[in-house]
Amino acid sequence: MTKQCGESIRLRVAMNVGPPPTKDCCAQLVKVGKPCHDAYVQERHLKVHDFVGSAEDLLKRSDQVWTQCVNFIHPPAEAPGHFD
C-alpha cells in the first residue's frame, strides 16, 4: 500500500477526518486483505490509543471503511428482475 493511501485510510479510521478513500486506495486496501487491515488497526491504533472516540468507535469506523472499499471495488450484483 502506498504511503499516501495508508495515511488517508489512517486519518479516516483513527481520527475520523478526511474524505473516504479513493477507488485506488480502496483497491490497495482490499488487496492487502481484511486480516491485515484488522491487525493494523489493533496493533497500531488500539494498543497505543492512537484514535479519537472510544475503542468501539474505532472498530466501527474500521469496519465501515473496509465495507465501503469492498463495495466500491466489487459492487454488489443487482437482483434479477423477476417481473420484467
From TrEMBL:
The keyword Disulfide bond does not apply. InterPro entries: DD11 (IPR040220), Prolamin-like (IPR008502). Residues 3-70 form the Prolamin-like domain. It holds the Pfam family Prolamin_like. Keywords: Signal. The keyword Signal applies. This is Prolamin-like domain-containing protein. It comes from Punica granatum (Pomegranate).
